[in-house]
Amino acid sequence: TFSNVLQATKAWFKQMADGKSLQIVSSYLNQPTSWNEGFKKTNRFYVIKGDDHFNLTILKIKPSDTAMYFCVVSSYHKIGMGAGSRLLVRGKFSSIGRNTTLQQSLTDTLHTGDSVSLQCSLFTESCAGEHSVY
């Protein structure tokens, strides 16, 4: 979930071990989601979106899904980014149909054939002083 201030554009990114980042999917306001062609073709990725959330689910995970996943939301000049979810897939098909949900900053080991849901959670707090975003 995230603040109503940060709701114009929402996106999920995948960062692989080599540092390369790929945009998986994005959504602008109430327009249909826009998928990176490589992820759309697999039929294993889908999102559930609303005014305050943009959750990514990966079905039947594979070792190639191992990566850090980041949710980014923005509105004009304000940008928010989640801490990331590390997804580590090991082993062979062992638990087909099992769904696992990862929260931001959580590291969990899953197995090939499992499914996983990633939640975008950005929390905003009011505090005094100067603010910086990196």
Automatic annotation (TrEMBL):
InterPro entries: Ig-like_dom_sf (IPR036179), Ig-like_fold (IPR013783), Ig_V-set (IPR013106)
Domain Immunoglobulin V-set: 10-89
Source species, domain of life: Eukaryota
Name of the protein in its database record: Immunoglobulin V-set domain-containing protein
Organism encoding this protein: Cyprinus carpio
